[in-house]
Here is the input.
Amino acid sequence: MTHPSDTGPAPVLALRDVSKSFGAVRALRDVSLELFPGEVHALAGENGAGKSTLIKTLAGVHRPDAGQVLLDGEPVVFHGPGDARDAGIAVIYQEPTLFPDLSIAENIFMGRQPRRALGRIDHKATHSVTADLMRRLGVDLDPDRPARGLSIADQQIVEIAKALSFDARVLIMDEPTAALTGSEVARLFGVVRALREEGAAVLFISHRLEEIFQICRRVTTLRDGAWISSELLDGMTEDDLVRRMVGRDLDELYPKQEVTPGEVALSVRRLTREGVFTDVSFEVRRGEIVGLAGLVGAGRTEVARAVFGVDRWDAGEVEVDGQALVNGAPSTAMAAGLALVPEDRRAQGLVMDMSIERNIGLTGLRTTVKAGLVDRGAERSRSLDWAVRLQVKYARIADAVGTLSGGNQQKVVLAKWLATGPKVLIVDEPTRGIDVGTKAEVHRLLSQLAADGVAVLMISSDLPEVLGMADRVLVMHEGRLTAEIPRAEATEETVMAAATGRAAA
Amino acid sequence: MTVTAPDKAPVAAPPKAGATRLVDRVFKMRELAILVVFLVMIAVTQAGNSEFLSEQGIKDLLLNATILVLVATGQSLVVITRNVDLSVGSTLGISAFAAGTYLQGGGNPVVAVALAVLMGIGFGLLNGLLVSLGQVPALVVTLGTLYIIRGIDSIWVGSRQITAADLPGGFVDFGSGGVSAVPWLALIALAVVVATAYYLKQFGGGRELYALGSNPEAARLAGIPVRKRILAAYTFCGALAGLAGALYLARFGNVDSSTGNGYELTVVSAVVVGGVVFTGGSGSVYGAALGAMLLTSINSVLPALGVSSVWVMAINGILLILAIAVDRIVALRLATALKKRNARHG
Here is the structure.
């Protein structure tokens, strides 16, 4: 790695040759990282590259199996998040970690409230310090208001106020901009720059490459848990960075086959679910992969759930092959040839304690049940067939799904639904938390399916994936479909503009 | 970032203050609502039966409520952490009998009470350890200890029974005595409730109970010693169940192996009726104490109004469901109020 002997100050916080495993999964392998005061450092890597594990190691949540955490050059052991905080390390997680029932002031000072006589909490001081912090951050939030109901942006402000309140020397931000609008991102960056000027070391994680180039000075790249590079961003291009993250050229990762779309397979007209999404209309043709992009919380998953019938819709209609679906009835949707691979495979896609064979078999119970009993032989051969076709890596097909890696679990979910022979396949975040190799396999599979005439609707927050795989990109913003962009015109800029509501409507 | 502040602040300030006051009021209202229901019920009963609020009547009301108030106070701490302790009835029963056995042999009443409390602490620690270390749902764990403690109690007590005649006169007098209409036991319960409420509001340890009930994962990330706090909540709950056992002995003088049987459900009802949210993070011991008062008073109110006491159970059930419905409606209203405020902001 490049040792920054050119910069004066020594690193405030560093990792040296850190490894961490969870069971058989090696989340981090000999990773090193140095954070310098007055500098914003980017951590880049694909989903599942080990970024979250790295953050949690710095935050004292995980203890490394091997290697050291260095604070001001001295090895330290954090026994818990409290230790890291006492060392001046503040972490803003992807999902804000607030206490909804408690006031903003209490949220900021939880665990280290200012005290008065007899160890009692000084409520007056918590209130006034919080009010000062809010003023300093330029927001108008009442310290006594409960955290429940705050917007994501405001929740992040509270998290930042928390970091400011104990004069954090190191601020770690895990995808803080994922759910923010353009102006909110600008506000956040203003705060980050101010902190940097005051000498704080910042570790910044974002999937938006332009943000990394905009605010960071140095970048460390991880791939599949291994350290790839640490270098100055000056002189690098986005392509350089992507190549380090992905480890190969993008074309290989997105093996999109050219197809001529056939007739309309899925037609959604003016679908509305009150307060969730409004007036959503689109079509997906046979052979087509349509990307559904948007920020987290834009309503993409909710649309998919309504189309499939898991949730009811309030107005509109859905047709598969010209046949109208019944509102709120997943079984008729399945019978019509619709399949939904859900976002959260652990909670919604798989029964983790059940075997691979039975998980795949679940969707086929209709065909494998004879005289009210499951024909285990038929179930096994059907499952084996699909497991082999998708190249699921397992020891025995009777093993519990929970023993597989994330990528292989995702393949099992896909197998489970492909076994139904769908005409329309909706996949929600199909490659989240999957290693790069499996990701390419999943993409190839989707591409193949489309070529075979399946209509694919792919919801994804992974922009390169959307751009690389989709024939058309639909973009949602705050419950509405804001743009439909053909493949040729789809770029990070056009999609993000629509996703953040910046596009001229 | 500071650019947006000046033009935003003046516009947003008035609605904010209003919304916050509303939020505050709603939270305070929850306790207030139970108090109002309670007072109305008492007033109606008094109107129907002028004997109801005699000195002895008031004393009985308070005496009946005391034990439930104590146990509900302990229970509310546990519920605030998003857990539950179902073993309180068994703990109450066994510590009452232990104190009684000791007094039977001519023991000192103060030591007897300490013994009951210690016993409660022991069982509380056991529950706390099982829940915090075992990572098993509290409902199941404490259902297990409910039966275990009750089982030990049955084996130990057998068909024996302690009656008031076996106890020192001073102890029994203390159990029914007091300053005019206010019994000693009620004063003890009041002291415990006030002290507990003060701790929950004014001390870090108390606020952390709310924090970990509100969002356990965030509590862990905030460096709160989650296991220690859960252990403390259960220990305190056990201690109060033990204390309640000793006071039960003083009040009724009559203990056998079935004492406190099924009490846990009454306790949980009182806590929920009192506005302590079952999913943790919200509620107060004042609310729980008021809930306990409300539930026990129904026992006295119905006979005073000439209604058969067979109605008590059904009415308790209705109150419980009403309480939950009210909480839900309040929560929804609150959410809308906060959302409106956000909208005005954005």
Observations:
- Confidence is low (pLDDT under 50) at residues 1-5 of chain A.
- DSSP finds 19 helices and 22 strands in chain A.
